[in-house]
């Protein structure tokens, strides 16, 4: 058996190494390659390497905005061939994104063909589509051939490519950027170019400017699709620290079309797929997660328009809030201002980013100026040689003619005259026509212009403020050329978006009908109505339904609805469904989240719940009364809050807003009444029972009305027998709270009581369903204990069971009177 050959000691042997060390080293190399060469944008021009290579390749191909389109396949091939050693799909996907106007605030490429859509449709293959540079992209590339930036070898060292673009615009903040590297990510939203340029110029003017001052110039992102940006805290956070969460919402508006209510979605949040949004809404409708939608249509073209038809009785505000909550119509944009600064990833605030851009432009302008200065000085040097030759033209011609060849002529000229080799070569290449007098004048003129230019260029290089002034002037030109108004509206609220930010604070009319319908109507409806007869405000005839309560309010006021159960529901006025003067309104049960068996006992409108003297006095059928400060109701909830604890079998009958020195009048069904001072009631919390207001003499007795004593009004009391009377409030003496009271009317049963004036009208209801409307002025004013006069004719076994005010339009009445006056005037004129 042969022996093994001896091992050559010069041969290197493999050494054992920990796989952990190998993996760590390899992973770090890989991650840095991804960070620097692929995923993160450069803070100077805002571009990733592949984006920069695409724009540069298109420039070299001559695909300018004023030239014909060319195939995207050619651009992709050029990029792959010379600059980007990766897959063609990554290049084409990037090219497409640079052309999509719903992605880029200012697209850098002009597309022709199918470049996808906001619905998520894929673009056509690059052999079918065409492109060329946008004008704004040419300004990002401008001056690239004037030694403004460094060029580096391409991946195969056959050519060079720019390491960064000159970028005459702050592209990183203008268009934003998104990238996922290894262990880090960037997500920069687009901003308004005008605002970014103003902030940049402000830093140039005052390098020590505070961040708060910059934030005043940059209110927030400006997304291509518009919409709302909700709240400023996230914006201030990322502008100051480089990180923050911006909440965005699409625009959804309730409109009325053809008598039906619709919700029109005219804008969607940034990076939301419109088709997916429509599908999500359809799924919620199918699963009945959102109720009240009759139909859904996507009528979008280039502009977003999603139409949602609502069912009768549906509340647009509720459905809009559900859409925001359950669909991507409300989205969050997590901002991370991370970019490469000197090839190192760095998270920056807004001032640091703009400072990096200013430093880049300072270097670009300095290098461009130095390049132009060298070029101008070289040309001036040649022109000086021309001038010397023209001044000694005959001698120059003689020397040249006497020389055997070009080299001998050059040496002879340089030996006799102070000429450089460059000047001599230029003189020898002169053509004969350039020796004419006219050409000599052009040379002199060009030389003087060059000397002025050289002086100007030198002053820029020597004066820092002048160089910064050039940057400002060029940014001003860019602003004038490409600036446009802000598309995204920034709302100053945080938390849930309130309609109050979208609704103007203006006057309106609130209408409550007897059958439980409510609506809000603009005051303009009443100012613009046609002249005509007096009628009921609302819809339908008064036998069918009529207005019980009508009052003017501001859209930012609050409406407090007190239920018979003692619960209170509070809504902003702008949440009340809007309707025309003749519209029926919306059922209260569809506006408030009522509990089973609840009905509205009364309503009160207030401007706010600030601390003050105002209180709310409540009364129940069993004679219990309670006074609570208005401010105690400020922490209201959507599902209602307790206004008074009601005993079993009792019901709330009234609520009145008092000022601290008012007097209360209670009337019972057994014709008893009591008047007492508000000061007899101590302030109590909301969730308390109250105290006795009137002592009921029998179990079948109950309070039917509570009114505030008004010296200008009268107290109308209607008996169940159809008789009623009006009395001065002075007829009812003031007593202490809690007594049995005094007789209110000579009647066995009282149907109701109201505080009325001569202009009021009432509606009376009978047990058998009769409804009679009557003016108050026909009811006689009598003493407290009188039986009164007949209010309504009752049939056999019928009785009056309730009365309510009917609210008529005073403007209608005044217009009717004006019309009658005009008619009389016309008749008098005719007789004359």
Automatic annotation (TrEMBL):
<dbReference type="InterPro" id="IPR006691">
    <property type="entry name" value="GyrA/parC_rep"/>
</dbReference>
<feature type="short sequence motif" description="GyrA-box">
    <location>
        <begin position="529"/>
        <end position="535"/>
    </location>
</feature>
<keyword id="KW-0799">Topoisomerase</keyword>
<keyword id="KW-0547">Nucleotide-binding</keyword>
<keyword id="KW-0413">Isomerase</keyword>
<protein>
    <recommendedName>
        <fullName>DNA gyrase subunit A</fullName>
        <ecNumber>5.6.2.2</ecNumber>
    </recommendedName>
</protein>
<dbReference type="GO" id="GO:0005524">
    <property type="term" value="F:ATP binding"/>
</dbReference>
<comment type="function">
    <text>A type II topoisomerase that negatively supercoils closed circular double-stranded (ds) DNA in an ATP-dependent manner to modulate DNA topology and maintain chromosomes in an underwound state. Negative supercoiling favors strand separation, and DNA replication, transcription, recombination and repair, all of which involve strand separation. Also able to catalyze the interconversion of other topological isomers of dsDNA rings, including catenanes and knotted rings. Type II topoisomerases break and join 2 DNA strands simultaneously in an ATP-dependent manner.</text>
</comment>
<dbReference type="GO" id="GO:0003677">
    <property type="term" value="F:DNA binding"/>
</dbReference>
<feature type="compositionally biased region" description="Acidic residues">
    <location>
        <begin position="809"/>
        <end position="832"/>
    </location>
</feature>
<dbReference type="InterPro" id="IPR002205">
    <property type="entry name" value="Topo_IIA_dom_A"/>
</dbReference>
<feature type="domain" description="Topo IIA-type catalytic">
    <location>
        <begin position="40"/>
        <end position="502"/>
    </location>
</feature>
<feature type="active site" description="O-(5'-phospho-DNA)-tyrosine intermediate">
    <location>
        <position position="128"/>
    </location>
</feature>
<keyword id="KW-0067">ATP-binding</keyword>
<dbReference type="InterPro" id="IPR050220">
    <property type="entry name" value="Type_II_DNA_Topoisomerases"/>
</dbReference>
<comment type="subunit">
    <text>Heterotetramer, composed of two GyrA and two GyrB chains. In the heterotetramer, GyrA contains the active site tyrosine that forms a transient covalent intermediate with DNA, while GyrB binds cofactors and catalyzes ATP hydrolysis.</text>
</comment>
<comment type="similarity">
    <text>Belongs to the type II topoisomerase GyrA/ParC subunit family.</text>
</comment>
<dbReference type="InterPro" id="IPR035516">
    <property type="entry name" value="Gyrase/topoIV_suA_C"/>
</dbReference>
<dbReference type="GO" id="GO:0034335">
    <property type="term" value="F:DNA negative supercoiling activity"/>
</dbReference>
<keyword id="KW-0238">DNA-binding</keyword>
<dbReference type="Pfam" id="PF00521">
    <property type="entry name" value="DNA_topoisoIV"/>
</dbReference>
<keyword id="KW-0963">Cytoplasm</keyword>
<dbReference type="GO" id="GO:0006265">
    <property type="term" value="P:DNA topological change"/>
</dbReference>
<feature type="region of interest" description="Disordered">
    <location>
        <begin position="806"/>
        <end position="832"/>
    </location>
</feature>
<dbReference type="Pfam" id="PF03989">
    <property type="entry name" value="DNA_gyraseA_C"/>
</dbReference>
<dbReference type="GO" id="GO:0005694">
    <property type="term" value="C:chromosome"/>
</dbReference>
<dbReference type="GO" id="GO:0005737">
    <property type="term" value="C:cytoplasm"/>
</dbReference>
<dbReference type="InterPro" id="IPR005743">
    <property type="entry name" value="GyrA"/>
</dbReference>
<comment type="subunit">
    <text>Heterotetramer composed of ParC and ParE.</text>
</comment>
<dbReference type="GO" id="GO:0009330">
    <property type="term" value="C:DNA topoisomerase type II (double strand cut, ATP-hydrolyzing) complex"/>
</dbReference>
<dbReference type="InterPro" id="IPR013760">
    <property type="entry name" value="Topo_IIA-like_dom_sf"/>
</dbReference>
<dbReference type="InterPro" id="IPR013758">
    <property type="entry name" value="Topo_IIA_A/C_ab"/>
</dbReference>
<dbReference type="InterPro" id="IPR013757">
    <property type="entry name" value="Topo_IIA_A_a_sf"/>
</dbReference>
<dbReference type="GO" id="GO:0006261">
    <property type="term" value="P:DNA-templated DNA replication"/>
</dbReference>
